[in-house]
Amino acid sequence: MSLLLHNYWSKIKEGDEKSFELLFKGLFSELCNYAFQYTADRFLSEEVVQDVFVKIWQNRENITPITSIKVYIIQAVHNSCINSLIQKKNKKNINNVFLSEESWASIQESTQINSFLLEKLEAEDTERIIKQIILTLPAGCSEIFTLSRFENRSNQEIAEILNVSVSTVRTQIYRALEKISEGLLKNS
Amino acid sequence: MLNPNSINDEIKGLIICYLTGDIDREHLEILNRWINESEENNELFNTYKSTWILTGMTNTKDQFLKDKSWNNLRINLGLEVSDLEQELNPRRIWLLNFFRTAAIWLLFFGLGSVITYLFTTNKVSQNLQTEITVPFGTKTIAKLPDGSTVYLNAGSTLVYNQDFNKAKRKVYLLGEAYFKVATNKSKPFEVITPYLTVRATGTKFNVKAYPNERSITTTLVEGKIDIRKTDDLKNKTGVELKPKQCLVFYKTDKIINPSTTIITYTKPSSEKNDEDLNNYKVFDNVKTELYTSWSEENWIIENESLRTFAPKIERRFNMVIRFEDEEIKDYKFTGTIQKETIEQILQALKITTPMINYRIIKDTVNLMLDREIKQKYEKK
Fold first, then answer.
1. B157 and B249, same domain (yes or no)
2. Quick one: pLDDT band at residue A186, thresholds 50, 70, 90?
3. What is the number of CB-based contacts under 8 A between chain A and chain B?
4. Going by C-beta distance under 8 Å and a sequence separation of 6 or more, which residues neighbour residue A149?
5. Among the residues of B272-370, which ranges form H helices?
6. To the nearest whole angstrom, how far is the Cα of B159 from the nearest Cα of chain A?
7. Which of A166, B46, B300, B360 is 20 to 30 A from A182 (CA-CA)?
8. What is the mean pLDDT of residues B170-184?
């Protein structure tokens, strides 16, 4: 994928609209899913991704990604999400209602994408490894993880649906996460 | 490598709470302290957080509108677009919608657990009320202090006072909710809407009371409930419902202002209203899942006219539906909706009812009649 993306990018730099469309459509879902984790809003995630692509097209001649264009775009989406959070934070009346100082601190802490995440974003087989590991999880564990991660259910809801305790839900999500992390680390 | 021995069960739980957005200040602090204790802890936490983000990115559910977004982008950049199209697609106004703003703020507190957060923070007002508001385009689930569960549909608000569960269990509702009431015979559970009050001790029932709708529908799944007029709770005997019965109450006065807050109807109305609870109908043996399944994974719709189905879709997807031909309102829709997008639902409608065409422009769905196809069908 990254090699292919590299080819796209050199064409896009020359102003090839078709390649730009392919790049947009190829990365769109993944990027929206990324943004969604910050915005928790479907439409807003689409907006953020669209806006990043607008800027990329407008500045295409000056952009030379250090690693890969994909990582470059993800970093841009990330920054865009964080920036809209900061903008909102600076508007009065909103910060004190929703976000405590502590959680604000943890947002600022996340203005940098950490190296492990970057490495995995670049790796071509990350998605495949994750899907494979989910398949090998015990049935209950993978069901709970799927409900949490892909159905966007809260721990409370999952507990209700499966008639188990909330702490069981957390334990199972932890197990899944532990297994997936181990699998990803093994392939580093 | 990860060293699982270095981490105790409490911290494991807190990490998951953090990632799933289910953490309060106090616990966030404990977690923060643990992260800062050692480089190793910090690294472990970052690995888990990264893995969490990565798994989120592999979500293959088609929840984002790729083609629509591409079209918007093309228009923004002025790539090969005709004037006409441009006119139909004014640039979307950024971030103005309050609910979106709220959604951003709730981000670290995750996707489904808005409620947990509201409960644990300063959302309690001077009157010591707890208010849960669900924006359009989403739904949620709340656990009340007495152990009862409430599923709240899009565009609904539920309020209860600080003394909930002391002597009585009272909640105020605008919109639609499905209640699973924890049994407690000594403390009746009351759902108060501007017109009707539903009283129960331990049952499952659905109340649909959107302020901008002409009727209030109460459906009983299990147990027993009693329905009275809210402004006349003391004097009149109420209507009792048995399981699988559904009571539809028709409002006779003017539609109340949707912005009317719940607080205003906690006081009894000053006007004397002698009218009995008489503008209602009780339906027996209804399929209760048609009234309650919106709260579940599979939302079942059976033979429902677009007239009543459209407002539900509007709320669920935060869209506006416009009927270009009045007679479309009488066409019926049947189907089960899971995670479908509005386009997929409209496609399904198009397949079962080919004479209906649709066009989506921004957040508006236009439905119109294709008269040629309609004539063809009528000839057959």
1. yes
2. confident
3. 207
4. B55, B56, B59
5. 289-292, 306-317, 342-352
6. 17
7. A166
8. 91
B209 and B243 in contact (C-beta within 8 Å)? Answer: no
What pTM value is reported for the model? 0.46
- Closest Cα in chain B to A145: B55
The verdict on B131 and B170 lying in the same domain is yes
**CATH architecture type of domain A127-186:** Orthogonal Bundle (1.10)
Render pLDDT for B205-264 as a digit per residue (tens, 0 to 9). Answer: 999 998 778 889 999 999 989 998 877 666 567 788 999 999 988 876 543 333 333 333
Q: A89 versus B283: which is more confidently predicted?
A: B283
B51 and B194 inside one domain: no
Task: Please tell me whether residues B40 and B72 are part of one structural domain.
Answer: no
Shared-domain flag, residues B212 and B236: yes
Residue of A nearest to B149 (CA): A160
List chain A domain ranges: 2-123, 127-186
Three-class SS of B104-169: HHCHHHCCCCHHHHHHHCCCCCCCCEEEEEECCCCCEEEECCCCCEEEECCCEEEEEECCCCCCCE
Of B29, B46, B104, the CB nearest to A39: B104
**Using the beta-carbon criterion (under 8 Å), do B2 and A184 form an inter-chain contact?**
no
Q: Kindly determine whether residue A160 and residue B122, on different chains, have CB atoms separated by under 8 Å.
A: no
Residue B214 shares a structural domain with residue B81 = no
* ipTM computed for the complex: 0.84
- Closest approach of B133 to chain A, Cα-based (Å): 14
pLDDT at residue number B128: 64
Whether residues B308 and B375 share a domain: the answer is: yes
Residues A28, B64 contacting (CB under 8 angstroms): yes
Residue pointed to by tokens 């071509």:
A124
Domain span holding position B85: 61-92
Q: Cβ separation of A102 and B28 shorter than 8 Å?
A: yes
Task: Report residue B80's pLDDT band, with 50, 70 and 90 as the boundaries.
Answer: low
- Residue A163 tokens, joined: 């008639």
Report chain B residues whose CB lies below 8 A from the CB of A120: 50, 54
Residue B231 resides in a domain: yes
